[in-house]
What does this fold into?
Amino acid sequence: MKKIYAAGNIILVLFLALSFTGCKKIKEDIAMKFLLDAMTNGKWIVDVYKEADVDETAAFEGYEFQFTKDGKVYAITGTGQTEGTWKGDVDNLTIYSNFPSAGDPLKKLNDTFKIINNTTKLVEAEPFNGSRDVYLKLVKKS
It folds into this structure.
């Protein structure tokens, strides 16, 4: 009888461990889907860009950013578009962007940014590694 009881406890512990592991994965999947939906539904503009307390927002005037679910981001202006890549990390609350062939101002966005505040229509961020003194605020274009 004790062997059956002990085996039952082991099975119960394994089942619970697997259940919690599955729940974490489900939560991560839901969070990633939310992030993807929020970022890819609509276009974004740079509302504020400050570097070392110098407001450089005007350099991004006329740019709209379209994020896609396949990891591409397009910086769109009236004269064309520049393709880059992006990736969101819900565990670390970061977003990475890279425009490899771009000059200013787009190359200023080539970094991993720590999200310090966000909603479905706003993202505030600063460089993740702290090597640059930058504040970035993106807002969804209405």
Summary: The longest strand covers residues 80-89. The first helix runs from residue 2 to 40. Helices lie at 2-40.
